[in-house]
Write the structure tokens for this entry.
Amino acid sequence: MYMKKMMKSIFMLLVIVSVLTGCGAKVDNNDNVSTGSSTTRRNATIGIGQFAEHGSLDNCREGFLAGLAEEGYVEGENLTIFTENAMADGSNANQIASNFMAKKVDLIAAIATPMAQSAYGAARDSDIPVIYTAVTDPVEAQLANSDRTPSGNVTGTSDKLPVELQLEMIRNILPDAKNIGIMYSTSEANSISAIEEYKKMAPDYGFTIIESGISTIADVPLAADNLLGKVDCINNLTDNTVVSALPVILNKAASKNIPVFGSEVEQVKIGCLASMGLDYYDLGRQTGKMAAMVLDGEKKASDINFEVIEEAAFYGNQAVANNLGIGFPEELIDNAKEVFDEIVE
């Protein structure tokens, strides 16, 4: 009798196990769940730190969210996002990075070099990956090695300036120009790297670079006045502090009839004459796809080399050209990605 009861109990246990196996066990919502041909992404939390508030970085952020959405991570559905802006202040960037660490986010997205450096510094000894975008020189910023491999659990995309194409464009538009002025922040590694590249290549196009370093945004008005007295034009970088004060530079330059060249489309929209620039929305979108790969667990950030968008296109502002009495060469117009007819205030 005892043996019969024991065998019956074992049989019932096997039936229960079989039922559970057939129905499937409960799946933690922090794992990717396969549902036939589609995949439901896990819930994730991301901290987005943006160093400054200006058009190109805003475009990066929007593109980043679009890239994530295309890969199945949608804000308000399976994605929680904390977004903070450092307003071009390094101490704010450090605090933002610390806040994200305290919230124990799954990933930090850092927009622009100073923000990327702050985020990586805060997350270096943790398992929280950092994905950056709009970092001109990741090697100089100590975010990557010379072969593009990550220096830690950090990777992303570079907005390396097409310096040679920019110089060639300036020469085509201003055939008699000699001195190009460039203002930059001495604290931004991306700007220091870009300045050196401009100084190296400028003589090949008959230019001399006149540089002016600043420490804070408050230095811009005086630096602009000094620079405008020495140059034939100003060439703007992707320097976050300088770009934040670009309207001041544009107003002062316009009063002296001196053209200002931008480094990307948003600068041309608001009053720079022209640029051989990148599409920052596309840059952010590419970065969002990289972030999704990390969130999926497909790869670690430390296993992904940083990427560079090689393509650059001509953007011009016909309204600015008319105000300055300058004509765009036909070749540039024919190959332009976009030419604006007005200045966006």
Summary: Residues 1-38 have pLDDT under 50 and may be disordered.
